[in-house]
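WARN no homologs supplied; continuing
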Amino acid sequence: QKHGIVEKDVVLAFSHKLREKLEATGRYKVLMTRTDDTFIELNARREFGENNKAQLFVAVHADYANSSARGATIYSLRPEVAGMLQRSAKGDLNEVNAVNKELPKTAEADIGAVKEILADLYRREVDLNQARTNGFVKSVIGQMGASTSMKNNPDQQAAFVVLKSAKVPSILIELGYVSNAADAQLLVSDAWREKVSTS
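OK structure emitted
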């Protein structure tokens, strides 16, 4: 708790508002890892997105700092970690290409061709994930920057557990710093939540 506010409360309030805005467009189905004061383990949050075949994953936080830092920041997965995950995901193709010995011999050529097509599609999906994430980050920064103050160089990379997916474009939004009096005042403002969630 800092400046009379608790991070988990303000991020949940913002997330509910964001869900409301997204669902009101009729274009999105929003699934939340939590809808109340329940702790969800970090890996379980990422797996929730993957298991539900999410097209986008957004983690929402409010940061603490010992400095006078303030403003929103958007994090995506550090490139070298993303590359490692992509290589790991491609390694899973061994399972896709495994020969099923129960299949009729006459079908082997056709089955091999289908497996190669599926493997190629999977490789492309893995490779596109980082590009999609980068586009997602730029879009959010552009829109959010018009409605609230952003930290200097708001496009940041990190190896946060919730971002470590080779399958789902994932970002972490730091709304601001609860340790900063000006940010804290915004974080508890209904008008600010309305404006920023709309952006």
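The beta strands are 57-63, 72-77, 150-158, 170-177.
OK
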